[in-house]
Structure prediction request, 442 residues.
Amino acid sequence: MSREVSIVENVLRVNDELAGMIRQTIDSAGIFCVNLIGAPGCGKTALLEKTLRDLSGEMKLAVMVGDLTTARDANRMSPWCDQVVQINTGKGCHLEANHVHQALARMDLAKVKILFIENVGNLICPVGFDLGQDVKVGMFSVTEGDDKPAKHPYIVAESGAMILNKIDLLPYVPFKIDVFREDVRRLNQRAPLMELSVTSGVGFDAWLNWLREGSRNKAAR
Amino acid sequence: MSREVSIVENVLRVNDELAGMIRQTIDSAGIFCVNLIGAPGCGKTALLEKTLRDLSGEMKLAVMVGDLTTARDANRMSPWCDQVVQINTGKGCHLEANHVHQALARMDLAKVKILFIENVGNLICPVGFDLGQDVKVGMFSVTEGDDKPAKHPYIVAESGAMILNKIDLLPYVPFKIDVFREDVRRLNQRAPLMELSVTSGVGFDAWLNWLREGSRNKAAR
Prediction:
């Protein structure tokens, strides 16, 4: 048993060392780095597609996207961004700093202002792995149900900002938004919660402005 | 490195041994055991609530439900079933045979015809852990997007039956059902795919009939 524990600790220690190196790299380049974490189908790729479309005229962006298999997400985003790297994890349920470190080596970071890391679709395992990001963004969608923050408290507690997507579908699904908001606030008093719909565009400006502010603050450091 | 691999193999070997013991227990009791796997919010608990409501007058049922934390799912199901055991995994991203083995000890299996195991909401990690079930059922929902089978091929390949939930929301979301069906068929030629809506009830009879047949076949063995 103690042997198992020490190996888990060792994996996390190696991960954290690499994450520290990534953080140095992106800090010295003045890049704002977002680690986007959410369940399969919450709309991570759609959010990033629209974000790239809306912001790419304004600043240079880059994306890493993790999936077990396929390059579908990278293919969806590449029309809007010339630096999209797909990471396939095989049966791996989360990205590790090692993946990001390797993908960084394939990128030209000069002039990049924001780097998005779209994690593997999973609300649990990605939370524990530091990728050297500035901020973890936890993403939910109304079709998942209002109970998800309470049932997945670690992503809520760890998030520097949160997104509730698909609010255009509120009329069609049972979802008590007060329950959702209260559970989020109980677990995390600081992080802004942005309620939006990628499809309809409602609420999307708050997300774009949050990104602009993050990028400005990073450049000013 | 080889030490890490051998420990992973050891964890799976211990799991498989326990799963074998569980299988003997449920086989000798003539119980049909379903391991339900899907992303957070695909509707696993809602499916089981309605299943318990519709079938409990006909046969005795039991449920184990895995979540990181809270007893919300067990509380939702207990009005319809007197044997519901909530398993909290802490930060654990899947159920293991050890969890099921312990929960079984708290159940009275006499006369139970179907045992449902609702796995932790996660499309990845639960797939690799045998729980001694008769069949793994992979569950998707239309709001997750039509690309999920291709992006999560292991759950599709491992499933003995599959569910596509929330088809009542098809008019409101971009979802190409032909793409979904073709990806499923490419990965798994045998398993039935049941397209239904737990909320509206459409297609639900096919699921109930599949359960009745599974239970009959098990009892006849």
Observations:
- Residues 2-28 of chain A form the longest helix (27 residues).
- The radius of gyration of chain A is 17 Å.
- The mean pLDDT of chain A is 95.
